Amino acid sequence: MSNCIFCKIIAKEIPCNLIYEDQDVLAFHDINPHAEVHFLIIPKLHIESMLQLNEQHQELMGKIMVLANKLALEHGLAKGYKTQINTGKNGGQEVFHLHVHVLGNK
Ligand code: 5GP
Ligand code: ZN
To answer: Domain 5-79 is of which CATH architecture?
Structure first.
């Protein structure tokens, strides 16, 4: 998606503070953090939002949630953290490339 800021981050056209990358997903620190730790996990596949999800995405979304916990623990959040997925205009979504927020204070 040529106009998508997160696709541009995936393509390395826009820099990010990278945490994790593999063939399916990318994790990076939010540019405007709302907590001591605030990072985003995104699929490399351009999916606009949760509204576009179907059965084909089950494995990918499961992978993202397991990774969210792994990276949260690696960032000192063993006492707990928040995950947030804003979905669609009425869900407060601003960047229309599906992403999971992980937020926490140490
Ligand atoms: P949304 O409201 O769509 O769930 O959240 C989008 C998030 O992406 C916001 O927390 C915002 O700070 C973050 N964000 C937007 N543009 C960029 C960017 O270019 N780089 C990074 N690292 N984060 C971004
Ligand atoms: Zn995208």
So the answer is: 2-Layer Sandwich (3.30)
